[in-house]
Amino acid sequence: MSLFIAVTPYKDLDVADLEHYLEISEEIDLLLLRVPMTRDDLCWALDYLLAHGFPQTKLMIHSDMAILEKYDLNFIHFRENDAHAFEYKKLHPHISVSMSTHSVERVKRAREWSLDFVFFGHVFETRSKHGLKPRSSKEITNAVSIDIPVYAIGGIDTHSIKSLPHGFEGVCAISFFRDRSLREIQLLREEWHTYV
């Protein structure tokens, strides 16, 4: 199942941010809320999205198991090698648990712990990893050959996707999904279908 996963910028979300994600909700498959907000403020953001029609099935929370359970969400994401992810998956096999990874070894570890999928990156130059070299084509080939769905993250847009190495199940992005219109995201999906 190929997915487009929008990741929020790491900041306190305001109404303008939430309105944007509501606008693009039909073209994204998941919205990962990865924010420094207090739990109360995060609940406010979730309540706002849900009250305005954002599908509950498309919400993904970052590492806060209490919020996941309070809102009866199906998706939770963890930082690389966070042991909470492995424990949570073992105890809640019906919940989709994913993790960020930056090496083939970490992808293998996620697979060993039966996680549902991983983000792997960064695959292209990106502002959020300024000065850091992207993963090599050999690393990417090895990562996507592991028996777990692998999602590309880092520098994804309508141009870079044409050079995306094969084997990814989908893409995640922060700035692309934050800065682009619904139409531009539809164009990315058209490029993605060409890619797959």
Break the fold down into its secondary structure elements and pairings:
Blueprint: E1 4-7, H1 15-23, E2 30-33, H2 39-51, E3 59-62, H3 65-70, E4 75-78, H4 83-91, E5 96-101, H5 104-112, E6 117-121, H6 137-144, E7 150-153, E8 170-173, H7 175-179, H8 182-195
Description:
The relative contact order is 0.15. An 8-stranded parallel barrel has the order 1-2-3-4-5-6-7-8. With 196 residues, it is α/β, with parallel strands linked by helices. The protein contains 8 helices and 8 strands, in the order βαβαβαβαβαβαββαα. It starts with a strand and ends with a helix. The protein has helices at residues 15-23, 39-51, 65-70, 83-91, 104-112, 137-144, 175-179, 182-195; strands at 4-7, 30-33, 59-62, 75-78, 96-101, 117-121, 150-153, 170-173. The longest helix is centred in the last third of the chain and has 14 residues, at 182-195.
Annotation keywords:
196 residues; alpha/beta; 8 helices; 18% strand; globular
* Largest sheet, strands/sense/barrel: 8 strands, parallel, barrel
Main β-sheet, spatial strand arrangement: 1-2-3-4-5-6-7-8
Whole-number average pLDDT? Answer: 95
Unreliable parts: none
Overall 3D shape: globular
Q: Indicate the percent of residues in helices.
A: 25-40%
Strands, count: 8
Task: Report, as a whole number of angstroms, the end-to-end distance.
Answer: 11 Å
Annotation field: number of helices:
8
Rounded to an integer, what's the Rg over CA atoms? Answer: 16 Å
Share in β-strands: 15-25%
Structural class assignment = alpha/beta
The string of secondary-structure elements, in order, is EHEHEHEHEHEHEEHH
Domain Thiamine phosphate synthase/TenI: 56-175
Protein name: Thiamine phosphate synthase
Pathway: Cofactor biosynthesis; thiamine diphosphate biosynthesis
Organism: Mammaliicoccus sciuri (Staphylococcus sciuri)
